[in-house]
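Check this.
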Amino acid sequence: MQIHLGKADYAILAAYFCLAIVIGWAGRRHLRRSGDFFLSTRSLPAWVTGLAFLSANLGAQEVIGSAASGAKYGIMAAHFYWMGAIPAMVFLAVFMMPFYYGSKVRSVPEYLKLRFDEKTHGFNAITFAATAIIVSGISLHTVALLISTLVGWSYGLCIGVSCLILFIYIFLGGLTSVIYNEVLQFFTLVLGLAPLSVMALRQSGGWEPLKHTLAVAAVNRHFPPGAWTELWRFTDNPAHNPMGVGGFGMVAGLGFVLSFGYWCTNFSVVQRAMSARSMSAAQMTPLIAAVPKMLLPALIVLPGMVAMALNTSGHGSFLPLAPDGTPDYNLAIPALMQRYFPTGLLGIGFTALVASFMSGMAANISAFNTVWTFDIYQCYLARNRAGTHYLWVGRSATVVAILLSIGVAYVASSKFNNIMDMLQLVSSFVNAPLLATFLLGMFWRRATGHGAFAGLLGGTLSAAIVQGTSLVAGNAPGLKGGWLGVHYAFASEMAQSFWIGIVAFGVCFAMTILVSLTTLPSRSDAELTGLVFSPTSWRGPAPGQWAYHPLTVGIIILIVSLALNIVFW
């Protein structure tokens, strides 16, 4: 499968690269101290940080993976938005941002240092830094492989050009440059994917004919006819839907553990809110991002569903086959672009995919250089140095992070025919236990540093045990599990990740409580002021300000999200 780009398409791509570099150069003028490089000196307006907050999540893995999930699992992929994102984003805005922003921490791991102790902080800093590099490398591998497959460029050239552009604007302008580039990348993505979604649905005859074709796809795979087009109706039994997840696993695994773990504790997205100019702007950041987030299934999941319909009506000939002989769902969007986009529009769509890569990778790189500089280097290697020294370290960390990401890209496995499956597996190991630590740390004053560390360690080990003793039906033991022996079977990789996350969260939660009750508090009540929720610290909207308060805005967003769930029930 190859896409043939014309001169106009290459011109659009080149223009985008030039604009990204110009933004990086413009950001360079505002770099006077380390705070400018790492946190934009907390000076950005809410609409900028809000779009950047969303764009940081819209990496190549998210765009390609969500479309792949739309093809593989149907409209159930929209759960990652309406249930697996919106409630967590509202919770972060209303309840957690006051602690992050108000405590003036420079990173999410640094909050754990203030709330608990050094070992808990160090554990999270190291695991986050490693995860950021892994996710960045996966993103780089995904896009390089995609571009080399579609356009015919060499894999190494794709990696080299992409990393060079990324390096220039991060190194020059720091987080400010990254955030403004993320705003550009958001609009580029919408401009590239909106026409594809409209054209694909129109060519399918509309929603009702699409539902009819997908009913055939469902029946061919021994599911009820509406399994690809109904959101909740077939979650009564994991065997009744293509995701292989029941209602409890969906709500507890995705809706609570993995979604709250990602959106509330992942520094690569929370960092954008920390860069806002005020507390109110920081709280509004996730809420502003939540509005377009609710609409993204129409731009990303829907094209994947159309690709599955075309694959069904074409008797399996529309989507290329992966090495294991299954449809390569990751190529859903590129296959649609090849089918529907003319020259010019193809360049916009192709540039949108490249923009998504740069957005996701830049978010992880900028978060990595902050955590490495402040949470690892400054804390454990070189304390009390000048700000210019840490600025130099942060820029050096950018170079190292890109080189490490390239290394991960070259060893990345191709065993997942849906990149989102791989990302959820990583999240179940890292973010699921971390969520338990943060919830207990922020809302239970008795939680101790020993308890938090034991919980994180136990939760991570339990995730490894569950993954090592379970396997998805039809797979061989290895990367996808079963390396400790196959004792549990799941219907899909996604179902396995949900349950790994549930177990990891539960073990971390229980162990933190148990060890905390048997150890002395690591912080006094005075030290916990501003770090732990209490009735006296909670302030609702002032009289006459209900309409503008984050709580009010959050409730409205939740109501709209609930309505979408009901409409597509």
Q: What stands out?
A: The longest strand covers residues 470-472. Residues 155-203 form the longest helix (49 residues).
